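Can't paste images in this forum, so I'm doing it all in text. The chain is below; anyone willing to post the predicted structure tokens underneath?
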Amino acid sequence: MQISILGCTGSIGTQTVDVCQQLGYRVTSLACHSQIDLLFEQIKQLQPYMVAVSQPAAALRLRQRLEAAGLECKVLTGEAGLETVARDPQAQMTVQAMVGMCGIKPVLAAIDSGHDIALANKEVLVAAGRLVLARARQQGIRLLPVDSEHSAIWQCLRSGHRSELKRIIITASGGPFRGYSEARLKEVTLAQALQHPTWKMGGKITIDSATLMNKGLEVIEAARLFDLTEDQIAVVVHPQSIVHSLVEWQDGSVIAQLGTTDMRLPIQYALTYPRRQPSARAGLDLNQTSALTFEAVDTATFPALDLAREALRRGGLAPAVFNAANEVAVQAFMAGKLDFCGISRLVSRLLYEYSILSTDEDLDLERILDTDRHIRQQAKELLEWKD
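Text version of the structure:
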């Protein structure tokens, strides 16, 4: 198997490299935004024939380092470079681990090139899920989920016929602020929000987990991936993060997928599907596992989940509005321009302020991207934030 990895320097990207090496898969191309120090080491280690760095200045520095080291590797840049890597003719699968809306065009490029896609980018399916999935069906392309929750659902759904499905149940750790009051949440710092209790992830997704915005994004993503309505998707807090999600069937049976908190497990399943191959990593030892507990989501204190459900019910461009507003809000919080509770307030204001007139069926890429740009600008104006 030959693999192309977009977002190779992030958390999912680096773990994908680990999995590829353990499986003996060849990585033919890589792409990242600007972390050229790590990318340079990956080039030495993996020997891809081309890479893309979306930031032009960083791409220039990488070319200079490769030349000085006597290493041959084609270096591309910009949006066009990302799409070229996504279309890599030597790759049989593209791993899309980029964060944010910048991942949409590379995903479409990979689909049009006939690549199956291991997808770890929530924003692509939240903002443009109908479009992306329709294109994949037209091309006969498989979109294989890498998120631990969606991988779990995907695996559990193999235990029955789709007509027998009652609902899916997505688990949430509750984040670092489970049990906090709203008053206490207003005082949390960035450093505290970045300390996830069970998972080690990138900054943006860690903040999303702390607000529970991540669960909201996952609800919309699950609706798209598995063709579900909003009322077929439940969310439950499970602090131990051992049960990654569950499926309930019409007869009352509930099938769960359990595993350690190691993203390399769902990554490997996506890369080897439909086969399961041995892993060098330790499996779940139930004798060493603490009690498994579950509790309801406190949506009064953490309104993000209800906001996501509202966006899903509205349909059309509402999920794109929800996603764009959240991305700007998280950036503002990380830059010290917005308090923690302000993230949900900003998303709520923009979601309810903008009427969504389109349907899921009449959306095209330009309309989605125009909406994304507009909402980002509106969010920044509300924050009086100038780039």
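The chain has a mean pLDDT of 93. The first helix runs from residue 11 to 23.
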